Amino acid sequence: MLDTNPTLIQEAAGGPSRTGTTPLVLIHDGGGTIFSYHCLGELHRPLYGIANPHFRSGEPWEGGIPEMARHYVKLIKSVIPRGSKLIIGGWSLGGLLSLEISRALLDESDGAAASFDLLGIVMIDSVCPLALPKDKEGGRILVQHVVEWSPYTRQETRDAVMRSFAEARVMVGSWKMPTWRDSNLNTAHDTTSAAVSPILPRPPPVILLRAKEAVPVVEEGVSRVDVHRHDRLLGWDLYHPNLITQVIDISGHHFNLFSKEDNLIEVTEQIKHACRTVEAIAQHRGP
């Protein structure tokens, strides 16, 4: 699974240049693997998955999420031809990494031709870090998710996944999120300062697939990913008021989107819909 990175998970007849077959690159979740994306149904487009290259070694990313994003840009360039249309995304942490990758791609283009025509981002139940609680939430107990392992999962894999989750939580907690130009004003929207700049890029279209259900926990508790479950934007308006282009509700809770067959069918269909949506936006936008 990690020997080839990125991994070509699905192929599409005709290749990326064929209309309607813009490649989709999905980034790993907090556990570092792309197993879940192998469970998806046919998307009718090239699908690549990027796993955490440090999954086995456990080597930390000293530069945090920005360092990961810069490295993942190189990985994308290794499989997608320069100048191609591109859609990126991911489940949970994968959506956050996609946001940083999109900024890294846009920062590369300083008057020269862009590496890719980035059409948009598909976030799969990615919660805005600014909305994640630190300890307690309104007196409720924050319940840590317990991973349900297959009896065939090796101990070394379990250890690597849990190590990846722990590192991901630390990196997200210290992440200084990208700054963008406001969609309506020619100014920066920066959650950390009052900085104003006319040269910042606007964020690409972002389609958010949002799980409708909360993770089952003890009566007095709540999962960290569900503190803002009632908010259709999952807290992203705290970061940038115009970041999310469209929200699509999907059945299931955060942790069973890829493990329950009915949910998986719906996730597949809505990823297809999200990709078609950003393609339509790009077509309307024109060259």
TrEMBL record:
Record-level Gene Ontology MF annotations: hydrolase activity
InterPro entries documented for this protein: AB_hydrolase_fold, Thioesterase
Entries under Gene3D superfamilies matching the protein: alpha/beta hydrolase
Record keywords: Hydrolase
UniProt keyword Secreted present: no
Chain ranges of the Thioesterase domain: 23-112
A Pfam family per the record: Thioesterase
Protein name: Alpha/Beta hydrolase protein
Lineage: Eukaryota, Fungi, Dikarya, Ascomycota, Pezizomycotina
